[in-house]
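pasting for the record
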Amino acid sequence: MDDEQLRQYALEARSHPRQSPERQLALTRLVEGIFHSGRLCYPRRGQFRHIYDEIRNEAIQNLFFFICNNIDRYQPERAPVMRWANYLLACRFFEEAIGIVLGDPRLRTESVDNYDRVSHTHRDREPSLSQLVKQCLEEDVNGKFKNKCVKNNPQANFKEIAKRRLLKQKWKDIATDLGVRASTLSDFYQRCLVEFSSEFKDYIQN
């Protein structure tokens, strides 16, 4: 997907009220376009070699939460969508994800080789974003997450898929277990992140 298409989706999303179906549809197309563009950057590549994919996946997930809830901040006159997304990914969310994955926000600028040298005394003091999202999924007060499923496959519901992703399971393994193509699961998951972004945001902030 080219920059102009992404720009149109971003402007379309901004033009509709929050929670409106039109805004959610535009955000879904925007997030899917960014995700499938193949142009998301790889910050600090070569570091954190054993857990790099885990950190980057965490960062991308949090980037999409941010975009869905803050699309009004996007200024098309300043940068194309991909440049904006990659700036946020590299300068904010990847750095935050290092601390989340390693369990200590002080480690976001540390090399993984120095991880064992850092005190763990504060590791369990505050829940990470992933932990809060997991709690929100577990509670699923109105059953929304469990009831949202891939067509004709109740087992392939958003709650189950999201919990597995938080456990860092690979798409191909989830797809095999649930009997759904990995690409179908991935697209479904990204759409649900958009649809439920406000629920996650409210839960995390309260």
